[in-house]
Design a protein that fits this description.
Layout: H1 16-22, E1 29-31, E2 39-43, E3 48-52, H2 73-91, E4 102-109, E5 114-121, E6 126-130, H3 137-146, E7 150-155, H4 167-173, E8 178-182, E9 191-193, E10 198-201, E11 204-210, E12 219-223, E13 228-232, H5 250-261, E14 269-272, E15 282-283, H6 284-290, H7 298-306, H8 316-325
Parallel strand pairs: 1-3, 6-7, 7-8, 8-9, 13-14
Antiparallel strand pairs: 2-3, 4-5, 5-6, 10-11, 11-12, 12-13, 14-15
Length: 334
């Protein structure tokens, strides 16, 4: 719920957190009508009561209190600043530490700006790879061998349009690797995941959450124990994947993010499939607060997505046909 408090000096309380901060956590909030634009704040040591009042009766340059003490503008600025700090504290809340036997490595392909993620159980040595890139498959295979790991699964978050996946090549380089993608993707793979289905590597497990919208087969992969999720192109850092091809749909993407990702704990770390500005990770709290598209209502979001006017993807005509096949087969040399 959002509350606006107006006075003659034009200050704004963005939310009830400001009022709570003022009362030092001893406050009960009563609100008679959230839709009214002008509100008087009555304060005592134990209660704040928000009452609608006509603008003409609003006290000049002050907010009336039961003790007749005025809150000066400078005090209100400090209160608002405290509320902002409280939001920042929530955003930077302590994250789940990685277990000593959990391995995590973020890798990057500079041509397609794609992140690949290597996760492993250091006891069993079983590993998984998320969103591998064809040209980087030899690099990934070499790293896995150097670390003494065994690649059990190579997963794709969706059928990519900007690069060819490395899963087929990795099956050749590291025999025994099982390719994985969502059942809804329409791509070939050794294993197709349904919503909430789990893949295990050693003692750890990763769950596939269906998050369509960018494509109809998008999945977000969740490792609950570590407090991390891999969002593919569904949710990017301060952005999201486009919705104008591959059965994309803006309303579906909005629903996926708000119902499947933004409902995760605020301190969960999020790792996208791409970033074009040098960022490496974000969090649920950050994106709920700062994502310039997905903090809007659904109609505003749909309008934004409809007016992006993005160019036709350079690799789509080559990547999509290949990605339909290479979960099972190596890529032809040409």
């Amino acid at each position: 719920m959002r509350v606006i408090v107006l006075s003659s000096f034009g200050l704004l309380f963005p939310d009830l957190g400001v009022i709570t901060a003022f009362a030092q956590n001893r406050t009960t909030i009563t609100m008679s009508s959230p839709s009214l634009a002008v509100t008087r704040v009555l304060a005592s040591s134990t209660k704040l009561l928000l009452l609608p009042v006509p603008l003409r009766r609003f006290p000049s340059r002050s907010i009336a209190t039961t003790s007749t003490t005025c809150i000066k503008p400078s005090s209100l600025v400090r209160i608002a600043h405290s509320a902002s700090n409280l939001r920042n504290v929530r955003m930077l809340a302590e994250r789940k530490p990685f277990a000593p036997d959990f391995f995590f490595r973020q890798l990057f392909d500079e041509k397609s700006w794609t992140y690949t993620y290597l996760l492993a159980d250091l006891t069993s040595k079983e590993a998984i790879l998320i969103d591998p890139v064809l040209e980087q498959a030899p690099r990934d295979a070499k790293l896995i061998q150097e670390l003494g790991l065994k690649l059990t699964y190579a997963l794709n978050t969706h059928m990519h349009a900007d690069h060819i996946t490395g899963t087929g090549y990795l099956k050749q380089l590291l025999p025994g690797t099982v390719s994985v993608i969502s059942e809804a993707s329409g791509a070939k793979a050794d294993k197709h995941l349904k919503d909430n289905e789990v893949v295990k590597f050693g003692r750890f497990e990763i769950k596939g959450l269906c998050t369509p919208g960018h494509t109809n087969g998008c999945m977000t992969y969740l490792v609950d124990e570590m407090g991390i999720a891999f969002t593919g192109d569904t949710l990017l850092i301060r952005g999201c994947g486009r919705t104008d091809f591959q059965e994309g749909d803006s309303r579906t993407l909005y629903k996926s993010v708000h119902e499947r990702i933004f409902t995760l704990p605020d301190n969960y770390r999020l790792f996208p499939a791409h970033d074009y500005k040098g960022n490496m990770e974000t969090s649920v709290a950050e994106e709920k607060q700062y994502n310039p598209r997905l903090t809007k209502d659904v109609d505003a979001f749909v309008e934004i997505m409809a007016n992006l006017n993005l160019p036709y993807p350079k690799m789509i005509d080559k990547a999509v046909p290949a990605n339909r096949e290479c979960g099972l087969y190596d890529i032809p040399k040409e």
